[in-house]
Specification:
Blueprint lengths: L1 E2 L3 E4 L7 H9 L2 E4 L8 E8 L2 E7 L10 E6 L6 E7 L7 E6 L6 E6 L3 E8 L2 E9 L9 E8 L5 E7 L7 E9 L4 E10 L8 E9 L4 E8 L8 E12 L5 E16 L3 E6 L5 E7 L5 E7 L4
Keywords: Signal
Protein name: WD40 repeat domain-containing protein
Length: about 300
């Protein structure tokens, strides 16, 4: 374990490389101060050399508070942070975002109540193309993860997550998604419990889906606006397609822990295309938001 102002414990050298270990333990860069500056979801928007361009959502709720931010991240350097204007009625409590496969600068952002926003980025603004509800969402759910990927036969599959709590498991739901109509196919769901953290748990704070169907989730401990925060990454299970394209979720009762983080509440996962490297974003409440990289992705 490497200790500084925070620490990260790694589980399995084959899962996180030595360079990623140093990046995860020493490379956190602040993207803003205060409770409105956290990152609750993130997506890779491009790459130029060592610099990764990302688009991140913030779970702000009040008028005048920023909902989207572009972050240019390069290890060892202060990130360039640019607010992005949301055109139209502001969403409330955005918790996740992922890119629409095959459509440049198009994304789906998800609010905690299960409302999805199909958006297109145009430089420093985004335009809402369509708003729709995820199927089967519960009025008492709190949705913190959303991912899209062309799994199996190439059709796009969506996965979303109700975060759960100490006493309630998180819930992953998956279905095929048609980007032409924003319609969903038949759904499959599975429960997930994180072995760690142990207290004040959000079982799932984000989810990432690879093209081969692997599911990676982040789990966090959130005892309040001043922390202290704990987070972990897990290989949670696998998504596959059955007959006639039916989606099937298999979630492990004993998920494999990929890494453990102290001092940050990780709520945002994104992967670089065709790479094991990914980007982590945190929402550390009164301590603001931060970003780093680690090798947790399945290319």
């Amino acid at each position: 374990m490497i200790k500084k102002a925070f620490s990260v414990a790694l589980v399995g050298a084959a899962l996180l490389t030595p360079s990623a270990t140093a990046g995860a333990a020493q490379g956190w860069q602040r993207v803003g101060d205060g409770i409105t500056a956290g990152l609750s979801g993130i997506v890779v928007d491009g790459r130029h050399g060592d610099t990764v361009d990302t688009l991140a959502v913030r779970d702000n709720k009040k008028p005048g508070e920023n909902r989207l931010v572009a972050v240019a991240y390069r290890p060892g350097a202060a990130p360039r942070v640019t607010p992005v204007t949301w055109r139209g009625t502001l969403p409330v409590d955005l918790e996740a975002i992922d890119s629409v496969p095959g459509r440049a600068h198009e994304y789906v952002a998800l609010a905690s109540d299960g409302t999805a926003y199909r958006i297109r980025r145009e430089n420093t603004t985004v335009k809402v193309l369509r708003t729709f509800r995820l199927p089967g969402v519960s009025s008492d759910g709190n949705y913190e993860g959303f991912a899209l990927a062309p799994v199996g036969h190439g059709k796009i599959t969506a996965v979303w997550a109700d975060r759960g709590s100490n006493d309630r498991p998180g819930k992953l739901t998956a279905a095929e998604w048609d980007p032409a109509t924003n319609a969903f196919g038949s759904r499959d769901s599975a429960k997930f419990r994180a072995p760690y953290p142990k207290k004040d748990v959000r079982q799932i704070s984000d989810v990432k889906l690879s093209a081969d169907g692997a599911l990676t989730v982040s789990s966090t401990s959130d005892p309040g606006d001043d922390g202290p925060f704990e987070s972990a990454l897990y290989a949670a299970g696998h998504l596959s397609l059955g007959k006639h394209g039916a989606v099937r979720l298999k979630v492990s009762d004993t998920p494999k822990r990929l890494a453990t983080f102290s001092g940050h509440k990780i709520e945002a996962l994104a992967c670089l295309p065709k790479s094991h490297k990914g980007v982590l974003g945190s929402d550390d409440e009164n301590a603001g938001g931060s970003i780093t990289e680690a090798s947790f992705c399945r290319p």
